Structures are given as structure tokens and as C-alpha cells.
């Protein structure tokens, strides 16, 4: 339990580094909250500043997730800080990833107003399970490209992965996977409802290389 809590904490601290805020601040001198929807994520930045700026935000979010995961794997993947405890092994990846999502979505320094954690989640589940994580990520991306609705694709990613985690990795993976799925649903619920009604603004157009 102590190792899981520390993985969550380490992941949270890295997740609090909002790449969108850093890049937009450097580019304009203003907070990303002043542009578009105000969301410190790739989609909003890409829509306002173009593909390459959005891609830079994506890269930063992926790097912070990988860094948090690597640190937790080195610290807790093969050892335990509790003498009688068991090392987390590969499950350290999921707990660190969950922490990074929490930090990205609810950064304490920004009054808990963060992003929606799609890129961070996608990287975390891929690092845990390259096969099932990639299948989940690609399935969600296909939904976005086919429908144009990012909320719909985001929810598909974590729902599929939770199913795969439960089937192939058991309860130790299912718990954090379900947490990721619930977080994704909670962050995208309004957009998901609008998507199902056909009133949500389509996001696939942001992926064109422009600006």
C-alpha cells in the first residue's frame, strides 16, 4: 500500500507540470486559460495555435508520464520499502500513470483546474501493456477520426483497457484501470452527452497540419 501511495504521489507531482501552460506562456506571455476553452491540453492548444504547437504539448505530456513511470519502476518495480511487502512489479506503471492523470487533471497549484488527461492516460496504459494499451488507444483514435468526437474516443480507450486489464492481468490491474476509466468518464461526461446528441463540436479537424 505504501508503494502504491508513493507511486500516486510521484505521478501526481509530474502530472502537475502542465505542458500547455508552459508552452503557451512562452509563446504569448499569457496563460493557456485565456485561449479557447481554457483547457490546458493538446486539443485546445492545437485548435488555437496549430498542429505543431499542439504536437509540442502532446510530446511534453507524454514525456512527463514516461518519466514518472520510469522513476516508480526503478524505485518499486523490483523492491519494496516495507520489509514484508511485495514489489509492485509492472503494476507500478499503472499506479504512477494514475497519479500523473490526477496531477494533470487536478493540479494543486492551479486550484485543481487542469486538463482532461487523454494523452497522459494513453501513454500510461501503453507503457503498462504495449499490446492491449495500443489496441485500446488505436480503437479510441479510430472512433475520433470516424465520428470527429474526442469525448467519445476518450471514453472508448479507457473502457476497453479496463476490460482487457481485468481479463488478462486480474484485480491488481483492474482497480487502477477502472479508476482511469471513471476519471475519463467524469471529465468527458458533458461532451459525451453532446456527442451522442450530435451537438458536440468536432475535434478531428484540429489534427490537420496548419498554422
Structural class, from helix and strand content? Answer: mainly alpha
Strand tally: 0
Main sheet record: none
Rg estimate, integer Å: 17 Å
Q: What is the average per-residue confidence, as pLDDT, rounded to a whole number?
A: 89
Task: State the end-to-end distance.
Answer: 47 Å
Helix content: over 70%
The DSSP helix count reads 9
Shape field: globular
Beta content comes to under 5%
Order of helical and strand elements: HHHHHHHHH
Query: Number of folding domains?
Result: 1
Low-confidence stretches: none
Helices and strands, with pairings:
Elements: H1 2-15, H2 19-28, H3 42-49, H4 51-76, H5 91-105, H6 118-128, H7 130-147, H8 150-168, H9 171-197
Helix pairs in contact: 1-4, 1-5, 3-4, 4-5, 4-6, 5-6, 5-9, 6-7, 6-8, 7-8, 8-9
Question: Tags for this entry?
Answer:
211 residues; mainly alpha; 0% strand; globular
Amino acid at each position: 500500500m505504501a508503494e502504491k501511495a508513493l507511486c500516486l504521489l510521484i505521478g501526481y507531482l509530474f502530472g502537475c507540470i502542465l505542458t500547455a501552460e508552459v508552452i503557451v506562456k512562452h509563446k504569448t506571455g499569457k496563460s493557456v486559460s485565456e485561449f479557447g476553452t481554457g483547457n490546458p491540453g493538446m486539443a485546445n492548444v492545437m485548435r488555437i495555435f496549430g498542429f505543431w504547437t499542439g504536437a509540442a504539448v502532446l510530446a511534453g505530456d507524454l514525456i512527463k508520464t514516461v518519466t514518472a513511470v520510469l522513476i516508480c519502476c526503478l524505485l518499486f518495480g523490483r523492491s519494496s520499502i516495507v520489509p514484508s511487502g511485495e514489489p509492485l512489479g509492472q503494476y507500478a506503471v499503472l499506479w504512477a500513470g494514475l497519479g500523473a492523470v490526477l496531477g494533470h487533471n487536478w493540479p494543486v497549484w492551479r486550484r485543481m483546474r487542469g486538463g482532461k488527461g487523454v494523452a497522459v492516460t494513453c501513454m500510461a496504459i501503453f507503457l503498462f501493456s504495449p499490446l492491449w494499451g495500443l489496441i485500446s488507444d488505436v480503437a479510441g483514435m479510430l472512433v475520433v477520426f470516424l465520428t470527429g468526437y474526442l469525448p467519445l474516443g476518450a471514453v472508448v480507450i479507457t473502457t476497453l483497457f479496463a476490460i482487457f486489464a481485468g481479463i488478462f492481468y486480474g484485480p491488481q490491474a483492474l482497480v487502477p484501470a477502472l479508476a482511469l476509466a471513471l476519471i475519463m468518464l467524469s471529465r468527458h461526461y458533458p461532451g459525451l452527452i453532446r456527442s451522442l446528441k450530435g451537438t458536440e463540436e468536432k475535434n478531428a479537424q484540429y489534427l490537420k497540419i496548419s498554422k
